[in-house]
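forwarding from the other thread:

> can someone predict this with adenosine-5'-diphosphate?

sure thing
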Amino acid sequence: MENLVIGLDIGTTSAKAVLFQKNGLVIEESESLYPVHHPQPSWAEQDPLVIEKAAIEAIGTVIRKANAEKKQVVAVGLSTAMHSLICIDEKHMPLSPSIIWADGRSVEQATRLRLQTDIYLKTGTPIHPMSPLCKLVWMKETDYEPYKKADKFVSIKEFLLLRWFGEAVVDYSVASATGLFNIHSFEWDEEVLKVAGIRREQLSKPVAPTTICQGLSHELASEMGLDTNTPFVLGGSDGPLANLGIGAIAPGDVAITVGTSGAIRQMASKPKTDELQEIFCYAVTDERWIMGGPTNNGGIVFQWLRDVLGEKEVELAIQRGGSAYDLLTKSASSVAPGSNGLLFLPFLNGERAPYWDANARGSLIGLTLSHKKEHIVRAGLEGVVYSLYSVGEALERLAGQPIHLFASGGFARSPLWLQIVADIFGHPVQVPESHQSSAWGAAWFALLAVGEASSLEEIKQSIPMKQTIEPNGESHKVYRELYETYRQLYMALKPHFTTLANFQRNH
Ligand code: ADP
């Protein structure tokens, strides 16, 4: 009877439980979906009790589907999306919804706090409405009732740990992404807590990612199909765990993840931040930090192109089965790199790194009568990668040159998109077999915690890889030339984007 490990990845749209062998092979996976609510246009909230139910269901289903014995599961590792914030009472019941990374209600507070550069230098969290710090200041300033009544402020992971084990603990990387945690001293920062108007006792204890919680109730254990003593290991947030799960842990290893949003990240052996506030730097273990930049405009740009231009492809995909994305990518493949001089600035959703500008807007530049739908689609795919490349430049300044690129997320299903990455960056791109890199990263910390693995680095031997895509020298030259123009366009258009964004808000 072989030992197995579960990675539980609680994302924005679903809880995924993935059952792995120790060598990284996926035995079975299960996903339980939940919605994001937008009670006001820029708000983004979820029901933590619904997420709890989905997480329990995902674990229970994966065990059932795999017909696994509960004794086979040596541990469960946890991965969660960053920046969620829930106000809870003494009985660990939610007083507020979970306010998630996509919530923009604290834009005013963020604009003000961003000028206090020292906060970012200490915490490594870019000052932006995504961060719990800005949300707490918004709560304080608007007399938000749950804030005034809260016994504790927690992320979705701490919420589950409190309810399942009664333990108020948080791993370093989830703590780091709050904007309240000092990445140099590994403690909550008293000065920043004052800004947020909260007390240290209202937060969980920051602990290492290999920390174990144990002691599920009989009822919960039976719903999950696990033993009451199954160790739950804290793990981290989904970003650094994706790096670990894909094997991007050495200097020069760069992970590019594009799902709905996207990010580019490198691990480092020292924390680094600077006055420009372009890059996040979060603690992961006692001796490793993750640096990188998130983009709001990843796969969502392709989704928008499909919805706006892909009516025919969507219909065909429904009739014949398959994916409208694949049909659109196929026609975009017939266009040469550079889309005949058409540039697509992908900021449809405002932008985080590197500009941190909610007013940034999308733009198609260079249109002529000869451009067709496939040029626009290709320019969109290229634009997302130019944007990641520009974040990569900012990252390189702090973390060093990229040597190996690793790709994960929904975009890795597209050979064309991966080729564009290889060609724009001018480096080979390695792609793993499984999309579930964060779950595998969480599972690896779990194996380390229970003594079934001996080092982080060892994971490199346990990541089944699918393929490596080599860059094309000629295409790289074309992209270098066009990127120069791309880079200058945002700055040139910035004031106009602000005017248009204001117009859009007011009409
Ligand atoms: P999430 O971040 O919500 O977990 P995924 O990682 O599944 O999402 O990524 C979803 C995105 O992946 C879509 O918005 C789309 O842009 C992209 N995508 C999905 N399938 C394909 C495909 N066959 N070809 C290209 N892109 C795809």
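The first helix runs from residue 48 to 66. thats all i got for now
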